[in-house]
Amino acid sequence: MTAPTPTPATAPGVHPVVLVLLAVVSVQFGGALAVTLLPLVGVFGSVALRLGLAALILGLAIRPRLRGRSRKDWAVVGLFALALSAMNLTFYGSLTRLPIGVAVTIEFLGPLALAAVLSRRARDLVAVAAALVGVVLISEALTTPWSELDLVGIGLAAAAGACWAAYIVLSRRTGARFAGLDGIALCMLIGTVLTLPVGLATAGSALWQPEALVKGLGIALLSSAIPYSLELLALRRLSPGTFGVLLSLEPAAAALAGLLVLSQVLSLVQVLGMTLVVVASVLVLGRRGSPATQAEA
Predict the structure, then answer these.
(1) Average pLDDT of 28-44?
(2) Is 35 within the bounds of a domain?
(3) DSSP per residue over 229-265, as a string?
(4) Looking at 29-33, 199-203, 259-263, which range is the least confident one?
(5) Could you tell me which residue ranges the EamA domain spans (predicted)?
(6) Any idea what the Cα angle at residue 230 is, between residues 179 and 190, rounded to 5°?
(7) Cβ(276)–Cβ(133) below 8 Å
(8) Residue 7 placed within a domain
(9) What secondary structure letter does DSSP report for 10?
(10) Is the pLDDT of residue 10 over 80?
(11) Is 297 within a domain?
């Protein structure tokens, strides 16, 4: 079906690439904050807080329309919520077993593989390869002893990557069927219904502690409400392949967040990796041809 008429938030004056870059910065600073929440409430508790508070914020701000939706509309947004919830749960689970650099590298193979599959230009394939090398260098995966790796953790990170690729595709389809930000608001609400019962069962009263709520609110804004909304808007005018390569900036943004929030210093190898990632993104941004203007059915 044809994408809905652009609203001011999706007007051509705001380039979709800018929206993606803002989302990348936001989610990585939210990730730095999430590192401090996991020990307090666990994986399910952290995801439940993140999605639940984001659903509350978006629900009050947007007031999404519930009536008049077709079964296919609900099926699409339901699958979107399932992919989103599974992506967060599997990635947070991998962080409890793997070094974060290794987990991020494995997870990022999902959107990179999507970009490679969807690409039909040799320059895009070169960009994907450069981004992959850059991600590996930034994460320091090559310097982590294999004896320290956890097979369950690797499987969880790989599953998170597959869910991330599904999220990219389903986000675009959701944006085509729901005006404004209704789709992402309903997605967060469904995701909360899916994760809150287990979050309550595993974290208990710790979910309501002031420290957990404050951190959860910050993560809900930085890692969910803001970036997912920006990405949904961007994917209405940006192809999933281009979007996947632009996400190669995630590790670079994570390195910046680590430096500013966690005082983590970058090595020369990591700086080289960041340079490769930026070059890959420039190759994609410099590609001629307009992004997709027709949303998928």
Answers:
(1) 87
(2) yes
(3) HHHHHHTTSS-HHHHHHHTTHHHHHHHHHHHHHH-PP
(4) 259-263
(5) 152-285
(6) 60
(7) yes
(8) no
(9) G
(10) no
(11) no
Determine whether 245 is exposed, middle or buried from the number of CB atoms within 10 Å of its CB (0-12, 13-18, 19+): buried
In this prediction, residues 188-213 reach a mean pLDDT of: 91
56 CA to centre of own chain: 19
Amino acid in position 291: P
Alpha-carbon dihedral 237, 242, 246, 247, rounded to 10 degrees: 90
How far apart (Å, rounded) are the C-alpha atoms in residues 83 and 128?
23
DSSP state of 180: T
**What is the band of 3 on the pLDDT scale with cuts at 50, 70, 90?**
very low
Residue 120 burial by Cβ neighbours in a 10 Å radius (0-12, 13-18, 19+): exposed
Least confident range of 7-11, 125-129, 218-222, 230-234 = 7-11
What ranges make up the beta strands (E) of 11-86? none
The confidence band for 154, taking pLDDT boundaries of 50, 70 and 90, is: confident
Q: Which residue has the tokens 């947004």?
A: 77
> Does residue 19 belong to any structural domain of this protein?
no
d(CA 98, CA 103): 6
Q: In this structure, what token pair is assigned to residue 47?
A: 């995801």
Instruction: Give the whole-angstrom CA distance, residue 100 versus residue 250.
Output: 13
Q: Which of 57-61, 253-257, 264-268 has the lowest mean pLDDT?
A: 264-268
Q: Could you give the number of structural domains in the chain?
A: 1
The token duo for 164 is 């991330």
Enter the pTM of the model.
0.77
- Domain of residue 159 covers 24-285
